[in-house]
Design a protein that fits this description.
Radius of gyration: 32 Å
Number of domains: 3
Number of strands: 26
Structural class: alpha+beta
Distance between the termini: 70 Å
Shape: elongated
Helix content: 25-40%
Strand content: 15-25%
Number of helices: 20
Length: 723
């Protein structure tokens, strides 16, 4: 009797599955490719124990037809091709019909899917390629969710050969990051089971540079250039594009090159070695480049069916194509190799006393920790030194806010003192956000300007930006440059807003790196609005003031609320009327006179769309303009007006009152009203002022004492032994 026997089909299937699914990352790669083939624009990945206990991928693609579910996990059942010749022009990731079949033989697999035509989703489980039960109708959204549990539960030897869960999760992040960089228009999110934050978050509208920055960090993103190469029909090379690092990249740990050939993620060792050899002429010894290339070759010249995991392909004229690519890279690098930047380490002392200057026209960019940076994954991360938040990621609450916080270019509107609209000069958007307002408020000695519960209605102005060449303004801007504190500027640029802790003392908290800071937001806002005034000088928007009784807006009536002498009021009014043309041209402060030569305040400047200064401070603002500003010196005059505008824009103090407390006027203050003021101010600071501060604020050395470190993570661990 012969010794050769046919293997049992279950054994054959397990052997084949072991060739295709070597580790959790291979299963993820196959599922990701199926989701992309299905036209998904958002993929959500959940991982537990490195994908061994749980690997879940949900997408919003076209879904799977109900009639196709019985064949979903059958080996060699596919919708991608019908005959062998189709491989020559295959344009999808999948084509063999083995991925889900292999997973079902070595794991517990369930699928929930819904097409646009179905009224509900269907859930079904698979075992060894066969459907277990009939599809069950369940609630679900369009798309497919693949649920893989207990990977390799029936192959103990393979399970023992896997790396630690953390190492497997790192490999999963690497693959998600590579597909995320290449897949334009598709969003990705990936996190560990039980974690509150995502390890990777890529929005569908992210550019390739944004994706590289999110995955590999700002150090890589700022040291790369776009790369494109002409086609070569003789070699079947249709297009080569991507991003390559310059000689300024300082990255001791190598990031494996990202190669996509005909949109397939592959490894190509000959190409990698050739590119590394090219970079030896441009990078210091021991430094590796960052390479992302998308190579399109005529499909008949490419054989995609040469490796079980599809990680390799073969293509004609390989040596010639590699030579073309490396020559083009060398040509581009040689044009840029005129200067080189080397970073040197500097010990950051705890006191913020370094007065290093920062360029006024540029915002500082913080260095952040990214999960995919290969220079960090090999190092052990201690919990007491782990930064758990990313300043570049938005909070979930930001998606609940109105679009009123968006910017617009030259916007104008009307405001009843109680009915208000604003104008802003911000070049980011071209839409205005209308908001209604109802309360009318009178200006009298007993009742100053109020602006509770105000909202804004914006409209566009056809106004071109004015270029200012005044020597005095340039001098003031240079002073800001010279006084900038580099270390403190980087803290604000890379910080995370925590919240307000004291509305009376105007204190809030922020987190930067491992440290928690207490900040005097009154002092910070004063400097911020002064810098905005310098930057947008002569290009402010306007807040138009209107009331039913126009007499309320006369300079005289506004100043009467301060109990000033009549002679002083006349002096201030005359001074402002005399300088009204300059105030309007440079500061958008419009003062008009009626037939009786009575001066009225018509507009005040708008520095930041979405934020209106407290109108209760308007009388003091007018008074200080007329008495403190030195009108005889150009530079001192302009500087003084900008400082008064900045003071006017500082958020007002909110007193702590109880339900029974009374004001000097005998009016009872409501806890509800006070809480509303706090809530409104908190939203304005978090969603309007602080984002602007992170983008454009140059912290001066004068505010070092207004930023105090109150805690740090290593110190808290020493006390509490946990976070």
């Amino acid at each position: 009797m012969g010794k050769i026997r046919a293997l049992d089909p279950s054994v054959v299937n397990k052997i084949a599955a072991g060739e295709i699914i070597i580790s959790p990352v291979n299963a993820l790669k196959e599922i990701l490719e199926n989701s992309i083939d299905a036209g998904a624009t958002m993929l959500e990945i959940l991982v537990r124990d490195g994908g061994i206990k749980l690997l879940q991928v949900s997408d919003n693609g076209c879904g799977i037809q109900l009639d196709d579910l019985p064949l979903l996990c059958e080996r060699f059942a596919t919708s991608k091709l019908t005959n062998f010749q189709d491989l020559e022009n295959i344009a999808t990731y999948g084509f063999r019909g083995e991925a889900l079949a292999s997973i079902s033989h070595i794991a517990r697999l369930s699928v929930t899917t819904k097409t646009n035509d179905e009224q509900c989703a269907y859930k079904v489980s698979y075992n060894e390629g066969k459907i277990v039960d009939k599809p069950k109708p369940v609630a679900g959204k369009n798309g497919t969710s693949i649920h893989v549990e207990d990977l390799f539960y029936n192959i103990p030897s393979r399970l023992r050969a896997l790396k630690t869960p953390n190492e497997e999760f790192t490999r999963i992040l690497d693959v998600v990051g590579r597909y995320g960089i290449h897949s334009k228009g598709i969003g990705f999110s990936c996190k560990k089971f039980g974690d509150s934050s995502y390890s990777i978050t890529l929005k569908p509208d992210f550019t390739t540079i944004d994706r590289i920055r999110s995955i590999y960090g700002n150090n890589v993103a700022t040291s790369i250039i776009g790369f494109e190469m002409d086609s070569n029909e003789n070699l079947g090379l249709t297009k080569v594009s991507g991003y390559i690092s310059t000689s300024n990249l300082n990255n001791k740990k190598s990031v494996q090159p990202i190669f996509f050939i005909n949109d397939r993620l592959v490894t190509c060792d000959p190409l990698r070695r050739a590119i590394y050899n090219t970079y030896t002429n441009y990078l210091p010894k021991g430094t590796r480049p960052f390479i992302y290339l998308s190579i399109n070759i005529s499909p008949p010249s490419v054989d995609v069916n040469v490796h079980p995991t599809k990680r390799e392909v073969r293509f004609l004229h390989q040596d010639e194509i590699i030579d073309e690519i490396t020559t083009s890279i060398n040509d581009q690098l040689s044009k840029l190799d005129t200067t080189r930047t080397f970073n040197r380490g500097v010990m950051m002392s705890k006191p913020l006393t370094d007065n290093s200057s920062t360029k006024y026209s540029q915002a500082a960019t913080p260095t952040t920790t990214h999960p995919m940076n290969s220079s960090q994954t090999s190092q052990r991360r201690y919990e007491n030194k782990l930064v758990r938040v990313d300043s570049s990621q938005a909070k979930i609450t930001s998606f609940l806010k109105s679009s009123q916080y968006n910017s617009a270019e030259y916007i104008s509107a009307s405001q009843h003192i109680g009915k208000q609209s604003n104008t802003a000069s911000d070049n980011n958007k071209d839409k205005a956000t209308p908001i209604d307002l109802n309360d009318d408020v009178n200006i009298t000695r007993s009742q100053s300007l109020q602006d509770e519960s105000q909202s804004n209605t914006y409209s566009m102005l056809s106004k071109e930006r004015v270029t200012v060449n005044l020597t005095s303004i340039e001098s003031l801007r240079n002073q800001v440059d010279m006084s900038a504190h580099k270390e403190l500027t980087e803290i604000f640029a890379g910080s995370n807003y925590i919240g307000i802790v004291d509305y009376y003392k105007r204190l809030l908290t922020i987190q930067f790196d491992l440290k928690l800071f207490l900040v005097d937001y009154g002092a910070i806002c004063n400097e911020l609005f002064y810098q905005i005034g310098l930057t947008d000088f002569a290009n402010f928007g306007t807040i138009q003031l209107q009331t039913q009784d126009t007499e309320q807006l006369s300079i005289r009536n506004i100043l009467k609320t301060l109990n000033l002498a009549e002679t002083k009021i006349d002096e201030i009014s005359s001074q402002l009327v005399e300088m009204k043309e300059m105030l309007w041209e440079y500061f958008s402060i419009e003062i008009i006179e009626n037939e009786s030569h009575v001066a009225f305040l018509k507009t005040i400047p708008l520095l930041l769309k979405g934020y209106t200064p407290s109108l209760s401070k308007l009388p003091l603002f007018i008074y200080r303009l007329g008495t403190i500003v030195n009108w005889n010196s150009e530079q001192e005059c302009l500087d003084g007006i900008l400082k008064q505008i900045a003071l006017f824009y500082i958020p007002e103090i909110i007193m702590e009152v109880s339900s029974s407390s009374e004001s000097p006027k005998g009016e009872k203050h409501s806890n509800t009203e006070n809480a509303h003021k706090k809530e409104e101010l908190s939203e304005k600071i978090e969603h309007v002022i602080y984002p602007c501060l992170k983008r454009r604020f140059l912290a001066p050395s004068s505010i070092v004492d207004d930023v105090i470190e109150i805690a740090n993570l290593p110190g808290l661990y020493k006390v509490f032994e946990r976070c």
